[in-house]
Amino acid sequence: MVVWKINEKNYFFYIFFFSNLQASTVYDYETNVFFKEIIDSITKVNNFNKNVSFIVILDDRPNAFVTENNNIIISSGLIKFSESYEAIVGVLAHEIGHIDKFHVTKRKQSIEDLNNLNNLTNISILAGSLISNNSEYIFQSLIGNKLSIQNYFQSFSREQEREADFYAIKTLSKLNLSSAPLKNLLKRLEKDAKKQGINDEFYKFSSHPIYKERYEIINNEDNYKIIFDENINSRFNFIRAKFFGYTEENINYVNEFLKEEYYDYAYSIILSKKGRLKKSLLSLNTLIKNNQKNIHLIETKADILYSHGFFSEALLFYKISIKKNPKNYYVKKRIFDIKFSILDPDDKDTSQALFNEYKFLLNIFYNNQDLIKKLAVLASENNLTYWINYFNVRQNLNNNEYDLKSLLNELKKIKKNTSDYDLIRLIDKVIL
Fold this sequence. Notes:
The chain is of the alpha+beta class. The chain has three domains: 2-221, no CATH class; 230-340, Serine Threonine Protein Phosphatase 5, Tetratricopeptide repeat, CATH 1.25.40.10; 343-431, no CATH class. The protein is built from 21 helices and six strands. The protein has a six-stranded mixed β-sheet with strand order 1-2-3-4-6-5.
């Protein structure tokens, strides 16, 4: 895991490189809680009992798609492009529809069959997304002149997309939400696509139905009462503003998408990135005063102070944030980072106490190399032999020069000899 850097300063979202997607994954507590609530509501009304996971990737192209293991990938561009949380619900319902209808398995088998017929390799396309056609377009270019096979694949995929569209609309109805925001999102995407020279002719070579056809599906189902939840939409808009603030530099461009306090939120973050800390904090303080129930604004204030090197001040607001929300492990990780940075290496008692208090973070940020290195330092300072050995193995696991089998055997030896339950549990994660 690395820290996203903007203007040579450490900023606020935790991200890591997700090799399969070739993109950075965003870790933000507020965002994760919001999307989990939406996904849980979708699965509940559909009596869908499988576990669904998700990640948010740092990609300005608006998209969402589902992979194996019921994992939904959501782009930051989709969050920024969506004007209402209801559109987001519709998109996620579409993706869950792919899972519920076993489209992932079917698509994978179809691709494997085509791969065998065409001697293709490295095909990673699984279930379709609601929005993007890029992956499928690449796939079609690969199979080239195999027109009959191509037509079969397209027919199969379009039917899946229609089925997922119906699933999304029915889900919105069950949740007493309007499908209009989803329709508006598709219209905006269509308009954006036309600007890029993509017209209806393109969809002859696409796995997705043309937008016109999808509007008809939506219009035919949009006959229920609209219930607008102002609170949840406010939550979404603050999240959306955060993404604009972290990913954009042009405040005039941001003004086209955000209004009033949401614009002010994005503006305060952009000001901080530009080094205008005082003005940033003045704007943010006003927002905090006017939105006292939004505890995430306090976290953002702490993040901004931290990024400018005001660690003591940041720690104060992180503690306020964690008191209001004890489950925010990202804040706990940041608190640990600050305490570690100001630790006197000669203070053995504090050093050991810090290790004992925060070693649990390894269960949350399992592959965070920065966390592993810092805790390894604390273990070494306190002569915690088994932990030292564990950290040595963990760091070597990422080095191809070391034999994997030998490293795993070393972990088994540590597990056999230690009585530390926390260490045993971590070793089991690696071995399994």
